[in-house]
Every structure is written in C-alpha cells, then in structure tokens.
Amino acid sequence: MKLYSYFRSSAAYRVRIALNLKGLAYDYAAVHLLRGGGEQLMPEYRRINPDGIVPALVDDGLVLQQSLAIIEYLEETHPNPPLLPSTPGDRAYVRSIALQIACEIHPLNNLRVLKYLKHSLNVTDEAKDAWYRHWVTNGFDALEPRLAGDPRTGQFVYGDTPTMADLALVPQVFNALRFNVDMAAYPTIQRIYDEALRHDAFVRASPEKQPDAE
Amino acid sequence: MKLYSYFRSSAAYRVRIALNLKGLAYDYAAVHLLRGGGEQLMPEYRRINPDGIVPALVDDGLVLQQSLAIIEYLEETHPNPPLLPSTPGDRAYVRSIALQIACEIHPLNNLRVLKYLKHSLNVTDEAKDAWYRHWVTNGFDALEPRLAGDPRTGQFVYGDTPTMADLALVPQVFNALRFNVDMAAYPTIQRIYDEALRHDAFVRASPEKQPDAE
C-alpha cells in the first residue's frame, strides 16, 4: 500500500492511525500542502486524487480517497482488530462521533478554508484564529457532555480499545492544541487524547514522526 | 421510526431519501432552524441531539445522529435494496463521493456558517454568496470529471440504481440551484440529478413535499 500524506493533515493522520492499528505496512508519499502553492493541486497528484486533497491510499492498483471511506475499506478488508463495534446501534454511535468531527469541525478549519478567509475575505489573523476556535469549541462543547455522560465511554471513546471515533478525535485535538484552544473545559476529550498518546499505533502516526515533518 | 428534520436541510434530505428507498415508514418531527433563533439549539432538541443540528433518527429507543451514520445504520439493519455496492473497492468509491460532498462542500455552506460570516465577520451578502458558490464549484469541478470518466457511472453515480452517493449528491444540487450556481459546467451531475427527480423515493423526500415546507 502507498499513502499520499502530509504530516500535519488531520485526515491523513486518521488513516495513518488506522493502518498502524491494523498492522499494515505502507509506503509514505509526501504531498506538501504549501510548497509551490500546494503540491496537492498539481496535475501529477490530481491524477491520483482529483479532489486535490490528502490523503489518498493506493492498494493493489485501487486508488482510494476520503479518509473515512479509506478507514471503512480497511475495516472491511482487514477486520482485525476491529475499528467499529459489532452492533448496528453502537456502530452508528461510533460513526456519528467520527462524522461529527469530520463534518462539523474539521472542514471549517482546514488550510484551504483559512487561506480563503485571509486572502479572499481579507479577515485579520485575529479574526481567522477566532473563527478556528469558534468551530472547535462549538464542536467540542457538544462532544464533551456526550462522551462524559455515555456509559460506553472507557479509556477510549467506545470502551477500552480504539475505534474510528478515536481516529477522528486525536488528530482534531492535536490540531486544536496547535491553535491554542483551551482544553480545560473538555476533560473527557483531553483524557482520551492523553490515553491515545500512550498507544504505539497513535504515536507512530503523529505528525512529528512522519518523514516529511518540519 | 421518528425523523427530526427541517425541510431544507440537506443532511435531513439525505436520510429521507434513504428511508423512502428502503420503504421504511416514519413520523416526521419538524425542527425549525430559523424560528426563535433556531429550534435545534433549544434544550428540548439538544436532549435528542446534543450537536444541535438535524437530522436525528429515533428507532426503537435508539437515538441516531449524523446523516451518513444513520444511512449506514439503515443499510445494516434493512439491507434491501442496498445503498452500497458489494465489493470493498466499490463501496469505498461510493462512500468517497458521499463524503466528498458531506465533508468538502456541505459543511462550508450550511446555515450556521453563513450566519457566522454575516454576523461575526460582517461580510457583505455578495461576498457570502461568492463564498457559497466557491465551495460548491470547487467541489463540483473535482466531481464532474470523476463521474464523467468513470465506467461505473450509469443513470446514477454507481450504475443504474441509487446509492449513498446519490443521497448526498441530489440535496447538494438542490441547494446549489437555490443559490444560482451555474450548472452548465456539470452535465453529468445535472443528468444524475434529473434522473433522480424522476424517482418516486427522491420526489417524496424533496424539501417542497415536506410537512414543514414553506
């Protein structure tokens, strides 16, 4: 397998964790999201992923896009260890948390959006950072009581082993810390993040351990 | 089943199509996203969905959130007719298109984001509409050649029957048309949209057919 990745991309980070948890080896192809206006927008990469975003995973000639679709694919092709629970209701719960992060928080805060705010709407750096924090805190404000109050919450989001929900949560927290979001109001989220960072599959997937880390 | 919905919500629209395609009857609970600052933000609804967004589906006491998690749940609990292909590679393809719309286009253009642009960043209505069109055209520019060039494209995104990808695509096109996005550059997307609107399950799910339509 070959993963097209950028060390700081949250979406690529999710897939790296999944690959590590499943014990799957892969080649790392770095796509620099800033250099020369963004290598992800170049024709060479667009042939791999027409969306012009990372990650993309190539498995035996198949080119796969969208981090959560890639994770579902890995789950179907390499079911052990499972990244989803066994019952439909609990699977929906885990997926809903992954999707809350992937659809309600992350899309508003990724690089191309922050660039548009700055260059097309001419917002100040201060307003841009406030925008970032607004969507993270808005999302975490909803997520924290949900996790704190759910009996399924364990060392991880669902019980004591990682699921797809943790694969979305950990990169989002990493990103929030980079933007100095105050995590004091989110003790359950912070605790799960701390737990994950004691787990080898998460550590090896972290941005600073990637070949293209700066 | 009971669906918490708003007639114009793209995410609720996706789930309505899924329920219709699966032939599942449901009660419709209208949540008005504008009235009184938004009923979705009131404590009554937050008890159903702490995220304060629609849709939510209640099935036999289970409360489910996030449209794509709900659709996966319906797929697992009511597998016929299937909304995903049978092979992992094709399932990943269909999911990646649904996610491209759900993660790269829709989150940037939903009501709460447009409200933030207007009220917190004080952008003009013109700049807000340009923002809207930017993210739709950015997404459709990537999607159109993908669909036009893929041999799996049929009357629908994948073959001649609807899948999860069409459930995401149709509401997004509906929404784009409302904002006067010029669809001339997207003939394949437009053709699939037109095809879907000849399909009873899609027609009955459309915003103007809902009890809370205005």
TrEMBL record, chains A, B:
Top-rank taxon, per record: Bacteria
One annotated GO biological process: L-phenylalanine catabolic process
Residue ranges occupied by any GST N-terminal domain in the UniProt entry: 1-82
Keywords: Isomerase
InterPro entries per record: Glutathione-S-Trfase_C-like (IPR010987), Glutathione-S-Trfase_C_sf (IPR036282), Glutathione_S-Trfase (IPR040079), Glutathione_S-Trfase_N (IPR004045), GST_Zeta (IPR005955), GST_Zeta_C (IPR034330), GST_Zeta_N (IPR034333), Thioredoxin-like_sf (IPR036249)
Pfam family, one: GST_N_3
Matches recorded under Gene3D superfamilies: 1.20.1050.10, Glutaredoxin
GO molecular function (one): glutathione transferase activity
GO cellular component: cytoplasm
Residue ranges occupied by any GST C-terminal domain in the UniProt entry: 87-214
Keyword Isomerase attributed: yes
Family membership: Belongs to the GST superfamily. Zeta family.
This protein's name: Maleylacetoacetate isomerase
Source species: Trinickia dabaoshanensis
